[in-house]
Amino acid sequence: MKLHPGSHNHDLSQYLYELIKNNRPSKSFSYIHDSFEFVKKITGIQNSSDQIRVNFDVDNLYTNVPVHEAIEITLDMLFKRPTPPPRPFTRPQLKRLLEIAVCDIPFRFLDKIYIQIDGVAMGSPLGPILADLFMSNIEQKLNKFSANKPLVWIRCVDDIFCIFKKQQNINDFLMRINKWHPNVEFTIERECNEKLAFLDVLISRDNINNKYNTTIYRKPTNTNLYLLYESNQCREYKIGLIRTLIIRILLICSTEELKNDELKLMKETLMMNGYPQHLIKRGVREGEIITRRMISKRQQVQESMKKKEVYFLLCYYGQESTILAQRIKRICKKLIPSLQINICFRKTFTIK
Description:
Layout: H1 10-23, H2 35-42, E1 51-58, H3 61-64, H4 67-79, H5 91-102, E2 105-109, E3 112-116, H6 126-138, E4 152-156, E5 159-165, H7 170-177, E6 186-190, E7 195-198, E8 201-206, E9 211-216, H8 235-252, H9 256-272, H10 277-305, E10 308-315, H11 319-335, E11 339-346
Parallel strand pairs: 10-11
Antiparallel strand pairs: 1-5, 1-6, 2-3, 4-5, 7-8, 8-9
């Protein structure tokens, strides 16, 4: 059921994907892009001894996404908002284009042609973003939970990492979220021996410091086989492999001890794959430099995102002054989101 780049609607799907991505107001509150962002989010979570971790997985998300419902969610996101909708399309025009791109997709199986009547086609550029918008919409129902709500809910497409308090009823929570939508079924994976894997990160409990540690996770089927040094590939690819492994270790492992253990294992694995020591040292050195630059750039972005505070002083004439202050804040937030507007009042008349 894969939509190949040469198919009749692949170019249209790619165009619509770019249109939706560039006009999307913001990501979901739970969304993470990769393992590095996940580690950054859970770093610093305290009171781990009073918590329990679980993973939820949406069973066969892509093939179960109701495409017509996902199209309506996408259109609402683009057209039901204060900012102007994307040009040059009206809502009916864009809806028709989305239907052409993702509905009734033909595919071949055992030399027979079939039509996929629901779900997003594998390989379609629109698949990931429609699935994410659909999940972002239904997970808003978490806001209706007054009790038994997870402390942490982090999602990467169809994989969800949660933290609960130990006294919470996780089975009841699972039963409730499985009622969110008839097409969506969540399965659960619980922590074992105080460890739980999410994506390629292994999260373990640090009982001494009462927090979580993170390191690299490898599946039981892992063979430690990488691109062999003797393979007929460009030398730059082989150095790039080492750099990538180094960046992964330095950004995922949370303690120096875990980093050193992973670095030692990585060097042994690379030597087993035929890599000479001088090339490994070069790749490690370059990977460390790239990692420092990434961390420095991330810190600069965080500092630039800090809102500058501005104070206004208004005379207080009663409720009208409060309404005026709210309007000023609302307008400034819309026009200058980087500013934090604070409004103070002073008395209009004083007795001396």
